[in-house]
């Protein structure tokens, strides 16, 4: 049976999001102010054909991951996100699962910080949203979980010492253990921890130590292929009431790093080399 209610809701929400608000160029010869289906597909990380089939009611059982991605791309409120899950025939995530909803205020904050590299992670360090300068700084990648990247495929742009790597890994594991205590019913979180314990002896060792904490800040040097080395402060801020993490990179004013970061903002994402973010 065609799910026309889901398709109607998606079209309505798509029509009210401007491309500028979603960080996309407006282009020309647009018949409507809202997002095109291709643009929604790009933001949600799914195919345009699948968006069409959802809107036409020919795709009736989207996964929870697809629904979550659509909710983020459409900048839905918490109540609208819950409604979207129910239209898709899914139970909204419960209180024992890691929150992945991005409030509209966080979207607006990223819109206003276009000169600062910013990424949004959930409490399990799954990357949910980044701005273009963060992508230009850190590169694009396929594994969007920050803990797994650090243990299994670290970013070659970040200049590490053995001491700084050990400290970062210990902080991330302690933070993940804290998250596991807060969200004991999240199956994706349990699978992530099991996968890391199986494939990383270092993670397993740190996990067995039982440390609990919160990863908050660091100072990193990023060797960028186009603008050279940038030594930046990396601060992790928690969004009250949602447990989202905002990772913000900033340079001390008047330094070479500040000049290079400004240059990177001009270059944009034209020179991405396909490395993984961190």
TrEMBL record:
Source superkingdom: Bacteria
Q: Which Gene3D superfamilies does the annotation name?
A: 3.30.450.180, lambda repressor-like DNA-binding domains
Q: Which SMART domains match?
A: HTH_XRE
Mind telling me which CDD domains this protein's record contains?
A: HTH_XRE
Write down the InterPro entries for this protein, in alphabetical order.
Answer: Cro/C1-type_HTH, Lambda_DNA-bd_dom_sf, MLTR_LBD
Limits of the HTH cro/C1-type domain? 30-81
SUPFAM superfamilies annotated for this entry?
lambda repressor-like DNA-binding domains
UniProt xrefs under PANTHER family? BLL4672 PROTEIN, BLL4672 PROTEIN-RELATED
Please report the name of this protein according to its UniProt entry: Helix-turn-helix transcriptional regulator
């Amino acid at each position: 049976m065609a799910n026309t209610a889901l398709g109607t809701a998606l079209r309505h929400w798509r029509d009210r999001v401007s491309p500028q608000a979603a960080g996309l160029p407006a282009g020309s010869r647009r018949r409507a102010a809202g997002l095109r289906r291709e643009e929604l597909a790009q933001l949600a990380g799914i195919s345009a054909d699948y968006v069409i089939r959802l809107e036409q009611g020919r795709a009736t059982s989207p996964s929870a991951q697809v629904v979550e991605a659509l909710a983020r791309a459409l900048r839905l409120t918490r109540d609208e996100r819950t409604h979207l899950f129910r239209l898709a025939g899914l139970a909204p995530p419960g209180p024992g699962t890691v929150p992945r909803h991005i409030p509209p205020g966080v979207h607006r904050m990223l819109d206003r910080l276009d000169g600062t590299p910013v990424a949004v992670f959930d409490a399990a360090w799954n990357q949910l949203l980044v701005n273009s300068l963060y992508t230009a700084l850190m590169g694009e990648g396929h594994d969007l979980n920050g803990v797994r990247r650090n243990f299994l495929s670290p970013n070659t742009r970040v200049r590490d010492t053995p001491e700084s790597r050990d400290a970062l890994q210990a902080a991330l594991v302690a933070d993940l253990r804290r998250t596991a205590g807060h969200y004991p019913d999240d199956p994706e979180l349990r699978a992530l921890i099991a996968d890391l314990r199986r494939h990383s002896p270092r993670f397993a060792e740190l996990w067995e130590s039982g440390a609990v904490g919160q990863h908050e800040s660091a100072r990193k040097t990023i060797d960028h292929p186009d603008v050279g080395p940038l030594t930046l402060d990396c601060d992790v801020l928690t969004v009250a009431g949602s447990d989202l993490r905002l990772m913000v990179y900033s340079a001390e004013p008047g330094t070479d790093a500040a000049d290079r970061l400004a240059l990177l903002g001009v270059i944009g994402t034209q020179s991405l080399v396909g490395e993984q973010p961190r």
